[in-house]
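Researcher: Next entry: Fe-S cluster assembly protein HesB (Nocardioides pini).
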Amino acid sequence: MLALTENVTDIVKQLADEVPEISALRIATEADGQSLSVSPAGHAEADDQVIEQDGATVYVDGPASELLADKVLDGGVDEDGNIQFALGQQA
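Model: Predicted structure:
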């Protein structure tokens, strides 16, 4: 199962606190089957895996959950306030 770093859980919790319509992030597979998108979400879709960690929620669609099963999601905010995400291998 995808693991989340403290940075990501902090980002998700802050988004949820600031924007009431957002309760989580959602990671979904793009049409090519290999690319992933990350977007704010208000609810899970029918086939989503729900990951709850340290008060943060991330929804991962079915195909993406298979790709990310052994990964860890990290993130940060740059000087301009843009959120950046990165994937790494779980230890």
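Model: Note for the record: The mean pLDDT is 92.
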